[in-house]
Sequence to fold (166 residues):
Amino acid sequence: MDEIVNRVANSSLKNIDLEDYYPTGKRVLFDIKDWLFEEIILKEKDFREKADSYNWSQLQDSYVAFTCSADAIIPSWAYLLLTTKASKFAKKCVVGDLKILETVLYTEIIFNLKIEDFQDKPIIIKGCANKPIPESAYTLLIQKLLPIAKNIMYGEACSTVPLFKK
Fold:
């Protein structure tokens, strides 16, 4: 009886799964709508009082996206003020929704990704993630890998879509 050999495991093929880099921590969508007068007007004095009295420690080790779901004009300094308070506890603060938060997180991850092990290798970028990985993360990863990869594919080892060949 012939031995079954895993040719994929024995090849120079390198797999990269962005889900492996997913930063752990609670995601918080921090809506300031309730801090506005009649949910439409930001009164500086009241806003500062709310920011000073808020228990920011509940954001410990969280990733925070500041937003306003009301149709109000929010001055830039308001989000900056909130960031000065939240940053003492939160891992990261952004202005926008949770999708923007994930995009910012993955932009930093890919920027800092060590790619030396992928030099002149065929690479498979795994798809079908169970975590909220933004589409832009894949495009950033491709741009980072293009100069060094032998070829790049997307999917699983058993069924890949070729994307690039040097």
The chain has a mean pLDDT of 93. The first helix runs from residue 7 to 10.
